[in-house]
Structure formats: C-alpha cells, structure tokens
Design a protein that fits this description.
Blueprint: H1 2-7, H2 9-15, E1 34-36, E2 42-46, E3 49-52, H3 53-70, H4 77-83, H5 85-105, H6 112-123, H7 126-136, H8 140-160, H9 166-177, E4 179-188, H10 198-208, E5 217-226, H11 233-243, H12 257-285, E6 292-297, H13 305-314, E7 316-321, E8 325-335, H14 342-370, E9 376-381, H15 394-406, E10 411-416, E11 424-434, H16 438-443, H17 445-471, E12 474-476, E13 478-480
Antiparallel strand pairs: 1-13, 2-3, 2-12, 4-9, 4-11, 5-6, 5-8, 7-8, 10-11
Helix pairs in contact: 3-5, 5-8, 9-17, 10-14, 11-12
Organism: Caminibacter mediatlanticus TB-2
Membrane topology: Single-pass type II membrane protein
Keywords: Cell membrane, Chaperone, Membrane, Transmembrane, Transmembrane helix
Length: about 475
C-alpha cells in the first residue's frame, strides 16, 4: 500500500486541497515518534514559506481518508502508522510548501475575494459556513488561512496547466482502444465427463490423504458446577434491588422484578456459588477435585470458541458461567490432526478427484484443439468489450480480453481463472488488428482528452517538483526517532 502511495504521490499532492473543507478527518494524531527542533508550530521551511504542524495534520487527515476508502473503511491509527502515513503526509506537506513558494516567486497570490468565492461555492451561504466552524470547533481565521494556502497551489497548477496535442491524445486513445478481430472457442470444464473408478479414487486418497485431516483436538480436565439450589423470593428481590441497573431492556429501561426474575435467579446463584467455583479451579490446577477428562474439538458445544482460545493459550480456564453452570478447565494435551479414514471423506475425495481430472482433461483437449483451431468470429473487440464474449462470466471475459491484448501470440489458448486449476479454456485467433477503434474513441472522446491532459500535466508536475527541490533550500525542524 505504501509503495502504491509513493508511486502515485504526485496525484495525492495535486488533489490534496480538495479535502480542505473536511480537515477534521481522522482527528489529531500523536507525533510521538518525531522529535521537534523548534518550540513554535513550524516543522519545516522552504525559502520564506513555513510548513506548520497544522499543514502536516491536514495532509495526514486527507491521506488517511483516501487510504481508508481504499481499505473499505477499515483503517485504524495503528495500521496507518505501520503503513508510514505520518512520514508520507510530512512529505506531502513539504511538497505543498515548495509549490506555495514557487507560486509566490511567480507573483501569484490569493485575494480575500478568492477566499470568499470558494467559501460561498462550498457552503452556499454565510450561515452554513458559520455553523460548520462552530460544529468543528475551528476559528474562521485558521480555516481561511489554510484555505488560502490550498487555493494558492490550485492557482499555480491551473497557471501551469498544459493542453494536450492531437498526437498525444491519439497515442493515449490507441493504447486504450486498439482492437482485434477475433475467432474464439470457449471450452467449459463442467462439460467434460470424468469416469469415477473406486480403485482410482482410493489411489487418489492414498496420494493426498494429508489433505483430509481431522480437526485439532484437545484433551482437557473439566469441572462443572450447576447453578442450582433453593432460593427464596425475598433473597431474589434483595439481590435485584441491589443490582437492578444490570437488568435493562433494549431501550435502556430498567426491567421490573417479575420480568427479570429468571436472570436474577441465575445471577444470584452464580454469586452464591462463586467461592465454590474458585476452590474447584484451584484444585483443578493441581489435578484434584471432581473433574472429568474429555476430548473436544476447537468448536464444541460445551466451551464457547473464545474461551477455547484462552484455554489453548493459557492452559487454564478460570471459572465462568455458561449454560447455567460454572465451568473451569485445564489443558492436558493438544492432539494434532491425523488423516481421516477413506470412508469418512469419500464424498469430498470424489469431488476433488473429478475437479483435478477434469482440469487435466480440459488442458489436454484445449491444446489438441488448438492444432486445428477453427473458432467463431466475434468481430473487432477492444479490451473493454467483455460483453461480446459469450459463455464466460463477465469477470473472466474481462480477464480473457486483458490477457489477449498483452499477449505476443496471434493464436493461443488462455486458461481461466488460472492455469493450475482452470474452469475454462478460451482458444483465440487474431485475424486482424486496428491501431484505433474509431467508434469507441468517438464515444469516449472527452474521457480520452481528460486522461491525456492528466498524464502530461502530472509528468510536468513531477519534473517541476524535482527541479524545485534542487532549487530551494529545505530546512526541516523535525526528525524521525522511529
């Protein structure tokens, strides 16, 4: 992930200002691994331009948000630290400072009117803007100062923006929409019959028996104490009154005694028998008491899965209440998996055997058919015309076309989704090739133009940034201790 971000850093910097309006993002992060060399908020300086902790924070929040989206909202601060997002954000903040200094040297600046226009564009009116500041706890001065920095970078990039030439546009278009006139034939593994012979199945099992293992089992000592005993109504009511905050419905309302009575009885008995359970636990650790020795799988009905993990790791289970009884346990031995008897796994073995044999047959048939291949012509297709590939799921049709367009062979076979265990074999023959499919290009002319513009301007930006790094003296008042 971090390699991807480093490769595409220029894209991140160019668009970083867009998230200015939402720089509450990931919250303020701790910079504990970094040592600051100044008492002020300045962390770096490019000529006359200072980069502040807030600039760094804004860059970090924007970067965090981007990566979090890529990970489906599962990014946390610990993972962000492992990915090196703090360092990456520092680089981005400094790059932004370099661009701001260059903009100043060119005589560019942001007026109060520019700030007002952008605020009006985003918030529509003054009331919305003031509400935003109030809700996020920001001062107008700080927000507008940050916005001014971002708009200066935007103005610079707009000033430097190049328009693509026709040759450049057509080069990108050809890369996107070159077309092949294809003959194809799709062979589906499901249509291949495999004879199931009992002796062959047993041979297959003998050869692969270590694939069919029993679950991990655990030999344990266990003692249970049922939550039983005579309890008076008076005792239960007293216990309920002392602990009624523990008995609430889904709305958070305290349940009446009658509605909570069954749970109160269980809890009260657990309270009364707790001392007995602790004694049983201490005896069990010394292999004493009324324990039983049993063998269980990791998933069993007696001990919940999370408690089994504790037992595996610690060797002991302190008393806990489950299914109206106290349970305490001690691990004696972990029994490693062993090959299961043929009869127990026969159906699974047959399924695996058929799958493997049909894959081998599919490869044999495809390679033999390729020697005198005559397929169905589907006309000219680009790498995006997966809907024209019949008898293949869309994702595999897309994979097939991508493979064809990077292949150096005019006639060949592609196994999908992989050659080791293919579900399909697709034979193809390229009759003719077009450097550019005009119809596809015309349909996507604007997209091609925008993409070409992005490519040439990002290359320009990257070259410019490298030159500016050599031109300006960059002073950092911070170093990484990590």
């Amino acid at each position: 992930m971090i390699e991807w971000m480093q490769t595409h850093r220029k894209w991140l910097v160019i668009t970083i200002w867009i998230a200015t309006i939402a720089f509450v993002g990931a919250g303020f992060v701790g910079w504990g691994q970094f040592q600051f060399g100044k008492k002020t908020s300045t962390i770096a300086k490019v000529k006359d331009t200072e980069i502040t902790i807030q600039d760094w924070q804004n860059a970090y929040n924007n970067l965090f948000d981007r990566v979090n989206q890529q990970l489906g909202g599962k990014l946390d601060e610990a993972t962000a630290k492992k990915l090196g997002l703090q360092k990456e954000a520092l680089d981005i903040a400094i790059q932004q400072g370099i661009l701001r200094q260059y903009a100043k040297d060119l005589g560019l600046y942001v007026t109060d009117n520019d700030i007002a226009k952008k605020i009006l564009e985003v918030f529509k009116n003054k009331q919305n803007y003031e509400n935003y500041l109030k809700n996020t706890g920001q001062k107008a001065k700080d927000f507008e100062n940050n916005l001014r920095k971002q708009l200066l970078v935007e103005k610079l990039l707009k000033y430097l923006n190049l328009k693509p030439q026709k040759t450049e546009i057509m080069t990108i278009a050809s890369a996107l929409y070159n077309a092949d006139n294809l003959d194809i034939k799709v062979i589906n593994k499901n249509n291949i019959k495999v004879d199931v012979d009992e002796n062959e199945i047993k041979k297959y099992w003998e050869k692969n028996k270590n694939k069919y293992l029993s679950q991990n089992q655990y030999k344990i000592m266990i003692e249970t104490i049922p939550l039983e005993g005579d309890v008076s109504e008076e005792e239960l009511k007293k216990y309920y009154n002392e602990n009624k905050l523990n008995y609430k419905n889904e709305k958070g309302e305290i349940l009446s005694f009658e509605k909570a009575k069954n749970q109160v009885k269980i809890d009260y008995l657990a309270h009364k028998l707790k001392k007995k359970a602790i004694i049983a636990y201490k005896n069990l650790k010394n292999s004493k008491g009324n324990y039983k020795i049993i063998t269980v799988n990791e998933n069993n009905k007696l001990i919940p899965f999370d408690k089994m993990q504790i037992l595996k790791n610690n060797g002991y289970l302190k008393p806990f209440v489950y299914n109206q009884q106290y349970i305490t346990a001690k691990l004696i031995e972990e029994l490693k998996p062993t090959p299961l008897p043929f009869e127990k796994v026969k159906n699974i073995v047959i399924k695996d055997y058929i799958n493997e044999m049909s894959s081998k047959k599919l490869i044999e048939i495809a390679n033999k058919t390729l020697q005198n291949f005559k397929g169905k012509n589907i006309g000219y297709v680009t790498k995006y015309d997966f809907n024209k590939i019949k008898n293949l799921p869309p994702n595999l049709a897309e994979m097939f076309l991508m493979s064809v367009f990077i292949s150096q062979k005019p006639i060949s076979v592609i196994f999908l989704p992989n050659k080791n265990n293919p579900e399909y074999a697709v034979l193809y023959n390229i009759r003719e090739q077009k450097l550019l499919d005009e119809k596809e290009y015309e349909k996507n002319k604007k997209l091609v133009y925008n993409l070409t513009q992005s490519v040439i301007n990002n290359e320009l930006y990257n070259d410019l940034l490298n030159k500016l790094k050599n031109k300006y003296t960059i002073v950092k008042y911070i170093k990484d201790n990590g």
